[in-house]
Amino acid sequence: MTIQFSTKIFPHADLHSAKQLKSSLAILLGQATDCLILGYSKTHLDDFGASKPKPGLLLELDRLLGGSVTHAKDLGDLDGKQASTCLLRAEKSWVPNGVKVKRVLLVGLGDLTLSTSRNLNAYAKLARATLKNLSSTTIKNAVWFVPSFSMGHKADFLAEEVRLTIQYAGDQAYRFGVRQPAMKFKAKDKADAFAHLTFAGNDDCAQDLKAAVAQGVAMVEGMHLAKDLGNLPPNVCTPTYLGKTAQGLAKKTGLKVEVLGLKQIEALGMGSFLSVAKGSETPPQFILMRHQGGKAGEAPIVLVGKGITFDTGGISLKPGEAMDEMKYDMCGAASVIGTMYATALMKLKKNVIGVVPTCENMPSGKATRPGDIVKSMSGQTIEVLNTDAEGRLILCDALTYVERFKPKAVIDVATLTGACVIALGHVHSGLFSEDEELVSALTKAGQASLDTVWRLPLDAAYHEQLKSNFADVANIGGRPAGSVTAACFLSRFTEKYKWAHLDIAGTAWKSGAAKGSTGRPVPLLINYLLEQK
Ligand code: BES
Ligand code: MN
Ligand code: ZN
User: Fold this and answer.
1) Is 318 noted as a catalytic residue in this protein?
2) What is the pLDDT of residue 174?
3) How far is the CA of 415 from the centre of ligand 3 (A)?
4) At what angle do helices 120-135 and 155-173 cross, to 10 degrees?
5) Interacting residues of 186 by C-beta distance below 8 A, sequence separation 6+
6) Is 392 a catalytic residue?
7) How far is the CA of 414 from the centre of ligand 3 (A)?
8) What is the Cα–Cα distance from 377 to 427, expressed in whole angstroms?
9) Which of 195, 307, 315, 325 lies 20 to 30 Å from 208 when distance is taken between CA atoms?
10) Ligand 1: residues within 6 Å at CB?
11) Which helix H or strand E contains 125, and what residues bound it?
């Protein structure tokens, strides 16, 4: 961890109650921290100038800070606008009042506190601005007084907001490779000075806060792992490396991990998966990760991740431009491994199984040719018309394999189609499912983590495009609706259970100057799992 999180409960601290305001502020300002973070609303600013019998948050703060707030206000640094920040630095006049904090960061809530239906986007903007402010200073640690950001609204918002804050702080603190044993090269970027964030609360929110912080911390660990695996070069992050990583998690947590090699994959009859792997010198792996947090007989939720550690396109070779980015073609696998890690860390009380078919897609004398017909584990024969449509070929056998778990639901995650990037850009992941409950749960989980999805169709009409003259099904359906026909292909292997497919081709990584893994959709999956009954 390049950043640590903790909680601290001040049982009676309440800045909303006129009675408790004074003593609460005294306690908070008496903390030995580099920075105390408080949210305030426009109404607190209105107190200045008005003759108030009971001073509000800012007036009382002003008194304890020897006029620092007035000073900032007079300079125009404090306007109450949503996501505006104002950093007050300790002065001599603070000391006689028992103030120990070195700074106070005031964050404008705008009208955020007034709306009954919370807008997580507005909160996100504010959290980002706050965290950015912290990272550009020498501040090493800070205390974020959570109740000052939420005027008594429901606790589930608090959990979402705290998790999102940790998600963003984790994102900001992420540095490539620092946790990876395989990275012998020096970390390129220096860590921020900011290394410890304490979420402070009171008795009213203590339980929710502690739970949300634990969940957020686990999620960040999972995201960091997912990002590292995505960013690692393809000569390091091979199928074997993914398998070793999963086995390493078993040692660290209670996860039960099994990694099947070539012989076992052959014995299972995964002819489709093997047709992709066979062009490569690197052996394929089939990774199984189990988290047994629920009752023994409880049906598991199964996550399946596409693990193509490099996608050259095979004999249907891709053009050279930006081909390096095809090291990210295992981001589905990375997000499943990251989610399983987070699930184990937070000791989720559910049964979850992660499954990763992983191999390279390479051209060689042994590679599959366009026109080859292969037999999937399900028995269906597939005409491989384009060896670059390989993701579906490895996923279909994994989707058949997971039938044995009698799953409650199966969600596969894959950087499946370039067409999805054209359809949805880099904003939403594509969501495909015929199960309305799954659609609604995943959509909600996406909104709660700002790791959003957009539903695309799966109608029978699109299946027409997958017809083959020589086999049960073709592996491509032409250019129109490329993401939909890819999902339709997968759906043929998922008839025995409830299933959803996430196409993360546009959301798993960023190109250009900010090139790097995003860790998506770990937040979405974690929020989904947390919400399952
Ligand atoms: N991994 C790619 C999809 C991809 C391409 C994701 C670019 C992100 C950016 C996948 O294996 C692939 O090559 N799909 C083909 C399918 C086509 C041959 C039907 C595609 O999208 O072009
Ligand atoms: Mn491909
Ligand atoms: Zn691919």
Assistant:
1) yes
2) 95
3) 6
4) 40
5) none
6) yes
7) 8
8) 35
9) 195
10) 311, 329, 386, 388-391, 415-419, 421, 476, 482, 505
11) helix 120-135
